[in-house]
Design goal:
The chain is mainly α and 188 residues long. It has helices at 3-8, 13-32, 39-46, 50-57, 60-68, 82-98, 103-110, 115-142, 151-168, 175-186. GO terms for molecular function: DNA-binding transcription factor activity; transcription cis-regulatory region binding.
């Protein structure tokens, strides 16, 4: 195999190591919380030698940052309408917050424990809100909402109640209620 073949080969050893380590990070985080997350625990669970984990990620915060960046190709669904797009977005948020164990809730909790985790989560949210603005931009292009509609406000109006109910209040929320919040936000 030539150097060019190795460089262009997708899913090589490095990709497998990263996938194994990040799966272990998610599992350890949901089982033990941020305070119980350790490089040694991640290494043991992933089957990757601890020196490899230390060399590549250096700290627990580095592991968390990489975990938050694993879905680089994420984009909000395009259903053809603002209401449909917001419902699809809320269903993704709902699923992420209600899965058991919830990596999303564990990461949110970790953000209160360390500045590095808070910075990683802040960067993650900024990226997600930037990408989610596409649902409103498409609605503007279709003439569904006024040109001056604030995309961030619409997305927060749709998704915010889910975080409030499920994360802050720890109260149950149905998928139908998540859909209802999306419908309300689409009428802003």
């Amino acid at each position: 195999m030539t150097e060019t073949d190795r460089a262009s080969r997708p899913g090589g050893r490095s990709a497998r190591v990263r996938a194994d380590v990040l799966a272990a990070v998610a599992a350890e985080l949901t089982e033990h919380g941020y305070d119980g997350l350790s490089i040694d625990g991640v290494a043991a669970r992933s089957g990757v030698h601890r020196t490899t984990v230390y060399r590549r990620w250096k700290t627990v915060a580095g592991l968390l940052v990489d975990l938050l960046q694993t879905d680089d190709d994420w984009a909000p669904a395009d259903t053809g309408s603002l209401e449909g797009d917001l419902i699809a977005l809320n269903r993704e948020v709902y699923d992420a917050l209600t899965e058991q164990p919830s990596v999303t809730q564990a990461v949110i909790a970790a953000s209160f424990r360390t500045p590095e985790a808070a910075e990683a989560l802040t960067a993650f949210w900024a990226d997600r809100y930037r990408r989610s603005a596409a649902v409103v931009e498409r609605a503007i292009a279709r003439g569904e909402v006024p040109v001056r509609t604030n995309a961030h406000e619409v997305v927060v109006a749709a998704t915010g109640p889910l975080y409030h109910q499920l994360v802050l209040l720890k109260q149950p929320l149905t998928r139908a209620a998540a859909d209802r919040y999306a419908r309300l936000a689409s009428g802003m």
